[in-house]
Amino acid sequence: MTYAKRQSRKLGWRFVVVAVLALFLVLALVRNLFMDLYYIPSESMEPLLLTGDRVLVSRTAFANAPIQRGDVVVFDGRGSFTPWKSGAGPVADGIVAAGQWLGVVPNDNIYVKRVLGVAGDTVKCCSAEGLLEINGVPVTESYLFPGDAPSDLVFEVTVPQGKLWLMGDHRSVSLDSRSLLGAPGGGLISTDKVIGAPVANIWPPARIHAIHGDQR
């Protein structure tokens, strides 16, 4: 009986280990191909997204439709918004990466911004009325953080093929394309750096809601 119990316990633990590994692999597959999770680390997209929000990001949001002006996108900022840098070491980097994967630690390389210019657009600030101009047409931006101006920085840029001009909704605190005008690339982000679009806020509980296309 003792031997049988030991064998039963071993089989039980093996089943648990296999089940956990299978669940992890399925979750990793889903997150790499379909839906991912990101932690919002700053105020740059208020009032749509708040610091500490955890958002689900659809990796297939732009699979069948091009990115358009007004879309909110999640993108990899390495080499543009974030300078290339060496890690802190394999152990420390592994711990940080695990926290980022779980959505409890912000990823300094990942950004969320609104698309204000796509290929061929000329984006300018500001018009005589103090509004952002896109292709010579003043734009009323209802998503702006209350009290913010469209931009305190005067600029004019024409977006080339394969690039995007991105700005935060909370313009007065946002690190975005405007901040990189003098840097290599001129603040423009490659479309192939886009990971997807936020589709739902899942944390904290009081802020659980879908993020609809008209909000993005």
Keywords:
alpha+beta; Umud Fragment, subunit A; membrane; 4-stranded antiparallel β-sheet; 2 domains; Signal peptidase I; transmembrane helix; 2 helices; 12 strands; signal peptidase activity; LexA/Signal_pep-like_sf; 216 residues
What does this structure look like?
By secondary structure, the chain is an alpha+beta fold. It has helices at residues 2-33, 90-102, and strands spanning 35-39, 54-58, 72-76, 110-117, 122-125, 132-134, 137-139, 155-158, 163-167, 188-190, 194-203, 209-210. The protein folds into 2 domains: 1-33; 36-210, Umud Fragment, subunit A (Ribbon), CATH 2.10.109. The protein has 2 helices and 12 strands, in the order H-E-E-E-H-E-E-E-E-E-E-E-E-E.
In percent, how helical is the residue content?
10-25%
Major beta-sheet overview: 8 strands, antiparallel
Secondary-structure element order, N to C: HEEEHEEEEEEEEE
What average pLDDT do the residues reach?
83
Please state the oligomeric state of the protein chains shown: single chain
| Low-pLDDT ranges | 84-101
Spatial shape: elongated
Number of discrete helical segments: 2
Report the span from N to C terminus. 63 Å
CATH architecture of the largest domain: Ribbon
Strand tally is 12
Transmembrane segments: 12-34
Keywords: Hydrolase, Membrane, Protease, Transmembrane, Transmembrane helix
Domain Peptidase S26: 16-203
EC number: 3.4.21.89
Chart the SSEs and their pairings.
Layout: H1 2-33, E1 35-39, E2 54-58, E3 72-76, H2 90-102, E4 110-117, E5 122-125, E6 132-134, E7 137-139, E8 155-158, E9 163-167, E10 188-190, E11 194-203, E12 209-210
